[in-house]
Structure formats: structure tokens, C-alpha cells
Specification:
heterodimer, A: 373 residues, alpha+beta, Butyryl-Coa Dehydrogenase, subunit A, domain 1, Butyryl-CoA Dehydrogenase, subunit A, domain 2, Butyryl-CoA Dehydrogenase, subunit A, domain 3, four-stranded mixed sheet, four-stranded antiparallel sheet, 10 strands, globular, B: 401 residues, 46% helix, 14% strand
């Protein structure tokens, strides 16, 4: 047993840090905040060249065949940089295609995603704020050539830059997962302004949107529901990794500031009120690290507590990152509350992710359902 | 990163489980003699002193094997070994800092619990500020004469020996002039008065020393360098084994779930109440996170790395969690959770079984963890200064020194 990263994993983490320190500086993120597209196509290409977009995809489809631990390492660094873009939704869609797709679907999407030519997005929420597949209200009706989808999908992240959407909908033969082009007829987009300008959300109205028969992903019914829930859980672990990165950044900034900012003739970090706060923040961050990487490993290893570990990571790290990032603002005082200072970028990213892939309450119920049978 | 147990560790776990199933006493151990006999049996099976070097009677096992034993003992509910302070902290201190003669004289009997040890550190006016201690050991030629008072001494009433911190140079600055001594507790100059705790048990005590005698040969390390030695001792204490502890929390959790199925409110079992479910989900997540963090520390220890100031994070994390855990449990359990069970005075109570009557003791006992062996506030100072590198505070005693 070894909880430490392998030399290869450490190398990946360090190179991700170095790349993002150069290409995803706070100033670059702020430019993207004001950009209508909200993500950098150039950075996306470079991420593809670094191998990040195919990291966990099968080698025969242009990927590197690595796992969730490596993906989480990259996501932690992306969170630390408050990177705005469709990396995680795209990776999740790709993982669903890799696991449940036909050969044709894999050939169509996986190499394109790995090479940076395609992006994906997931329509996991309907009008009910429940991430459980049972809450899907969108319907799929059979047509002569395939299906047509009708319903309202809400809070869809990065759909406006996606080349393919994964849309769960109820068909006569049970729940189905459908791969839909975002420009299909009958789709109306309503973009929204999120508190975190680095998280781009939109509502999606589907009015008899045609989907080809061969664009249905995986088996219908129970299998589709299981696949959707597994996607929520994998998404939760990735979101937890990003929130961990945001925590680390906020902790580093708070500690750095506490060392140099003086009040009453001494650095504020020498006051126990500040030092103890920083110690608590480190505790929460280290526990978050343990939660994220345990869950990531458990998913890779197929451990029997993998599903529960994912929910534990999301609920624990969601609470912890909110606390850590918020306390970092408190340590900074007034400057931490300004738009000009970078701290709020990470605070907002962590908060935005808290509500994605199931919030803490949602995952606590999954945990209890599992352990209090 | 690989959290699978190795085939050797899995085999070791199987062997350990089989041994415990065959040997664990079926009835509660009621007397100290019975506890000592069980301890001896555990020792001879290789389950006590596992990390000690073989040359001193230990087993030279890995941190992982030790964790597996504690985990399996927690699972089966086996009574723990005794002399925990001696085996966990005092013996290792003698191994690192003691003379050859001290090693020969004391170590084996610590392991076998033939001699029970206590730690004589805290004083009525020196707790968190331990270096402010006033107990004096004066040079009387071939021995030291000790006068003073110690407090919060665990196992005091049953201890044969104590690791004592005393001032040997009253003129030196606060952190200097302190020495580490091994003191015989069974002598006329040492009086032990049990202190009743909020749990109603008297597991710790006050110790009064009036012209007590310590042999010159029982000085550990160099004269006036006891403070540095105390730091290693505390380091071992905080290193801790968390796996067995978390297994006990987990056993208690399953009892908690069982209780929420039996206790009813508003005409239905507690477990059907969404607010109760949210609490249960949070507690389980938190206790699992303690386990993950424990595995992380364990895998570091298993590589032979010594616990550093980072061990303060572990200690802070689990003691604060334990308080939140039992606070929340008693809130759920109502009056049922407040029932006490009576136990023998000398026993280290297994507050983690989660059985009826143990919740209240566990709830009360949880107050101790954030105070003993460096309070949460002291841990946060250590984390702030030595892990995060924050500047030291301006302290009156440092200004004088």
C-alpha cells in the first residue's frame, strides 16, 4: 500500500502546474471572463498536445489509458488555476462513450476528443434540482429514423462550445442516453450569468429534437440509469479534485499574506487568531486531499466502496473548500473582498462546483442509502 | 499510488484474525492480573511491541502490520494491551536516548507489562506551557532528590515507574535546565492520589513527590537536555495509530444506525427523518475521511519515515472529529444515549463499541482528546509555525529569555 504518488504521477502534476502557471495566469483567466466564448481555443489545443484530453481514454482511440488518479491530478491543478473551460464535461462524456459506446460511436468521438477537435457537455439536470436519474423528465419518442427529444434541461455547463451533448431522456423502453449535436433543430439555448464567470451555464429547451437511432448510447432502462449515476459520481470526484485545487491556492495565498502583512507592529500570522485559522485550513485541505485521491483510486481499482467514496469526497470537499476559500478572504481582510485581488476567482470556482454533480446533501443521502441499509 | 494491501499483508491479516478468534477472552477482564495475563499472551504472539527492534525484545514488524493488528483487535472487540504509555512512548524514548544499562534494565519489562509506566510531565501550573514546570531534582551526590507535584498522570495508581521531567538547573532559561529522569513510583517519597474525571472514573491522578529518590544512573540523556527529549516523546505520542481507532468509530457508527432504526420520533424510526439521515451521512463521510487520512500517514510510516510536525494535523483532526461525532450522536439518541454503564476503576474503557450505555462515556471522554498530549490550540501553533512556516508570536517568556 502506498498513498504517495508514483514518480510518473508527480511528473504529470508538476508539468500541469508549470503549464498552467504560464498559460493560465489570473490575468488570462480574467480575459476569458470577459470573452463571450469563455474558454481559450489555443489553450485547448495545447492541452491536447500535452496529452491531457486523452489521458484516461483507451490507447486504441488515441488516449493514454491512464486512470482517475491521473485525471484528478490534472483537475486539481486546473482548480488551482481557476481554469475556465469544458475540460471536465468533455472528459466525462468521453468516459461514457468509452465505456458504453458502440465501435462506431467510439471511433466518431474518442480520437476527436483526444486530439482537441471535439468538446462535450452533459445535460444531467432537468427542472427538478435532483441529480438522480429518476428525476429526468425529458422524453424521447420513437420516429421512423430514430428518436425525437422534448423537455427542458437546466444549468448545462459549457454546452455553447460543445460539439456533442449527452442528454438523458425517458424513451418507451426506459431511460436512454442520447448523443445530440448542439445545433440540432428544435434546440433553444438560453445562456445564464453565473456568480463564477469561469463557469458558463445555459438552459436548453428541446422541442422534438431529432436524434438518429445510432446516436443512442448504451443499453436502455436500468443500465442507462446506472450509467448516468456513475457519471454523476465520477463527475463528483473530478469536481472535488478541482475544489481541492482551489483550496490549495487560497490556503497558499492566505499563508503568504499572513507572513508579510503587518498589524500592531508584527506580521498578522504571528497572532494565534490568524495562525489557528490557517492551521484549520491546512487540516481541511489535507483531509480533502485524502478524500479526493482515495475516491479516485477506488474508482480506478473498482473497489467495493468506490461509489460511496465518490459521494464522501464530493460532500466533504465541497464543505471544506467553501470554508477554506472563505477563511482565506477573512485572513486577507478588505483586499480579499475586492474584484482586483485574485482570491475571489478561486472562491467562486469552488462555490460553483459545490452545486455541480450533486451537492453535499444529495451525496450524503447516497451515502446513507448505502451504509444504513 | 496503490491502496491495495500487499499479499504479505493480507496473509498477515488472516493469521492475526485466526489467532484472535482462537485466543480472545470471551468474558470481560475484571482484574489487573487478568489484564496483565492477556497482555503477556498478546506479547508472546508478537502483537505487542511490534515496532520495537528485536534486540530489545520487540518484533521488528512494519507499521502496516501493527495497524493491521490494531484494526483486527478493534473488529473482534479484543481487550487492548496495557502499558500503552510505556510501549508507545517511554520505551521508544529510552531506546533513542537511554544508556545501555537503562535499556537492559527497563525495556523488556515494559514490553511484558511486568512493570507499568506513567508519564510525569504536566503540573498544576504547567500544562500547555509545559516548560514552565517547577518540580525540582537536586543533586545529592550519588542520587537526585525530587520535590514537586505532577497532575493528570494516567495510570498513576497502577504505575511502577515514571518518566519524569524535572528542573535540574533553576537558574537556566525556561526551556533549558530541565532533565528527563526515570523514577521509581514505589517509594515512600511518592504519593499518588487518584483524580476522578468527568466520566466518573479515576484513570488519572495527582502525584506528590517529597524528597523522592532518583538514581544518577536513571538520568536519560544529558543533564539539562530533557526538553529536547520530551519533544521526541510527544512526537511518538502524536504519531498515533489511526486505523484501529477509525475501526472503533466505524463499529460505533453501525450501532448508531441500529439505534436510529429502533428509536422513534413522530411515529416513525429516526432513520427515516431526512435531518437524521443528513447527520448520519455527514458523520460517515467524516469518519471515512479520517480513515483515508490514516492510510496516508500509515503508508508514510511504513516507509520508515518518522512522524514529524505533520502528525499534529492527524491528532488535531481525529480528536476534533471525535468530539463532533459524539456530540452529534448524543443529539440523535436523546435520553437513551445518556445512560451510563459502570466499569472497573483501572480499566481503559472501550468507549467505542457503541453498545447501550457506552455513548455517554464516549461523549464525555471525547472532551479529553482535544486537551491531552498537546491541546488543539498547541497543535495549531505547531502546525502554524512548523508546517506552514508562519512567524512565531511575540511571547512574554521568550522576551525575558
Amino acid at each position: 500500500m502506498d498513498f504517495a504518488f508514483t514518480p510518473d504521477q508527480t511528473l504529470l502534476k508538476n508539468s500541469a502546474r508549470a503549464f498552467l502557471d504560464e498559460h493560465c495566469k489570473p490575468a488570462a483567466v480574467r480575459l476569458l471572463w470577459d470573452d463571450p466564448r469563455g474558454e481559450s481555443a489555443a489553450m485547448w489545443k495545447e492541452m491536447a498536445q500535452l496529452g491531457w484530453l486523452g489521458l484516461s481514454l483507451p490507447e486504441e482511440h488515441g488516449g493514454s489509458g491512464l486512470g482517475m488518479v491521473e485525471t484528478a491530478l490534472v483537475l486539481e491543478e486546473l482548480g488551482r488555476a481557476a481554469y475556465p473551460g469544458p475540460f471536465w464535461p468533455t472528459m466525462l462524456l468521453a468516459s461514457a462513450v468509452a465505456e458504453h459506446g458502440t465501435n462506431e460511436q467510439k471511433k466518431r468521438w474518442l480520437p476527436a476528443i483526444a486530439s482537441g477537435d471535439a468538446r462535450g457537455a452533459l445535460a444531467l439536470l432537468d427542472t427538478d434540482l435532483d441529480w438522480n436519474p429518476a428525476a429526468v423528465a425529458t422524453r424521447a419518442e420513437k420516429t421512423s429514423t430514430g428518436w425525437q427529444l422534448s423537455g427542458l434541461k437546466r444549468y448545462l455547463a459549457w454546452g455553447h462550445v460543445a460539439d456533442v451533448l449527452l442528454i438523458p431522456a425517458h424513451a418507451p423502453d426506459g431511460l436512454g442516453l442520447f448523443l445530440v449535436p448542439p445545433g440540432a433543430a428544435g434546440i433553444t439555448w438560453t445562456p445564464m450569468m453565473n456568480m463564477d464567470p469561469g463557469t458558463r451555464l445555459a438552459d436548453l429547451k428541446l422541442d422534438r429534437v431529432p436524434v438518429r437511432a445510432e446516436d443512442r448510447l448504451g443499453a436502455p432502462g436500468v443500465a442507462a440509469a446506472a450509467a448516468q449515476l456513475a457519471l454523476v459520481r465520477r463527475g463528483a470526484v473530478g469536481a472535488a479534485a478541482e475544489m481541492l485545487g482551489a483550496s490549495r491556492r487560497c490556503l497558499d495565498m492566505a499563508v503568504g499574506y499572513a507572513k508579510i502583512r503587518e498589524a500592531f507592529g508584527q506580521p498578522i500570522g504571528s497572532f494565534q487568531a490568524i495562525r489557528h485559522k490557517c492551521a484549520d485550513m491546512l487540516l481541511e485541505t489535507e483531509n480533502s486531499h485524502a478524500a479526493v485521491y482515495y475516491a479516485a483510486w477506488a474508482l480506478d481499482a473498482g473497489a467495493e466502496d468506490g461509489a460511496t467514496a465518490a459521494s464522501i469526497a464530493k460532500s466533504y470537499v465541497g464543505d471544506a473548500s467553501r470554508k477554506v476559500c472563505s477563511e482565506a478572504i477573512q485572513v486577507h481582510g478588505g483586499i480579499g473582498f475586492t474584484w482586483e485581488y485574485d482570491l475571489h476567482m478561486y472562491f467562486k470556482r469552488a462555490k460553483a462546483l459545490e452545486a455541480q454533480y450533486g451537492d453535499a446533501e444529495f451525496h450524503r443521502e447516497l451515502i446513507v442509502a448505502d451504509v444504513a441499509k | 499510488m496503490d491502496l491495495n494491501y500487499s499479499p504479505e499483508d493480507r496473509a498477515f491479516r488472516d493469521t492475526t484474525r485466526r489467532w484472535l478468534e482462537a485466543n480472545t477472552p470471551s468474558e470481560d477482564l475484571k482484574t489487573l492480573a487478568e489484564r496483565k495475563a492477556w497482555h503477556r499472551k498478546l506479547y508472546e504472539a508478537g502483537y505487542v511491541g511490534m515496532l520495537w527492534p528485536k534486540e530489545y525484545g520487540g518484533w521488528g514488524a512494519t507499521a502496516m502490520q501493527q495497524a493491521i493488528v490494531q484494526d483486527e483487535m478493534a473488529k473482534i472487540g479484543a481487550p487492548p494491551a496495557i502499558n500503552g504509555l510505556g510501549i508507545g512512548f517511554i520505551g521508544p524514548t529510552i531506546i533513542v536516548h537511554g544508556s545501555e544499562a537503562q535499556k537492559q534494565r527497563y525495556l523488556k519489562k515494559i514490553l511484558t507489562a511486568e512493570e507499568i509506566w506513567c508519564q510525569l510531565y504536566s503540573e498544576p501550573n504547567a500544562g500547555s506551557d509545559l516548560a514552565g514546570l517547577k518540580t525540582r531534582a537536586e543533586d545529592a551526590g550519588d542520587h537526585y532528590v525530587v520535590n514537586g507535584q505532577k497532575i493528570w498522570t494516567s495510570s498513576g495508581p497502577i504505575a511502577d515507574w515514571g518518566l519524569l521531567l524535572a528542573r535540574t538547573d533553576p537558574k537556566a532559561a525556561k526551556h533549558k535546565g530541565i532533565s528527563s529522569l526515570l523514577m521509581n513510583m514505589r517509594q515512600p517519597g511518592v504519593e499518588v492520589r487518584p483524580l476522578k474525571q468527568i466520566t466518573g472514573h479515576a484513570l488519572f491522578s495527582e502525584v506528590f513527590m517529597t524528597n523522592a529518590r532518583v538514581e544518577k544512573s536513571d538520568l536519560v540523556g544529558k543533564l539539562n537536555e530533557g526538553w529536547a527529549i520530551a519533544q521526541t516523546t510527544l512526537g511518538y505520542e502524536r504519531g498515533g495509530n489511526s486505523l484501529g481507532r477509525v475501526t472503533r468509530y466505524a463499529i460505533a457508527f453501525h450501532q448508531l444506525v441500529r439505534a436510529t432504526k429502533q428509536l422513534r420520533r413522530n411515529g416513525k424510526p429516526l432513520v427515516e427523518d431526512p435531518a437524521v439521515r443528513a447527520t448520519l451521512g455527514r458523520l460517515y463521510a467524516e469518519l471515512e475521511v479520517q480513515r483515508y487520512a490514516g492510510l496516508r500517514i500509515l503508508s508514510t510510516l511504513n516507509k520508515g519515515e518518522r512522524p514529524g510536525p505533520e502528525s499534529s494535523i492527524t491528532k488535531l483532526s481525529y480528536t476534533e472529529f471525535e468530539k463532533r461525532y459524539y456530540d452529534a450522536a448524543l443529539e440523535l439518541l436523546g435520553p437513551w444515549g445518556q445512560m451510563m454503564t459502570a466499569r472497573e476503576e483501572f480499566e481503559e474503557i472501550d468507549t467505542s463499541s457503541g453498545e447501550a450505555g457506552t455513548w455517554a462515556t464516549a461523549f464525555l471522554w471525547a472532551r479529553a482528546g482535544t486537551i491531552y498530549s498537546g491541546s488543539s490550540e498547541i497543535q495549531k501553533n505547531i502546525i502554524g509555525e512548523r508546517v506552514l512556516g508562519l512567524p512565531k508570536e511575540v511571547r512574554a517568556d521568550r522576551m525575558k529569555a
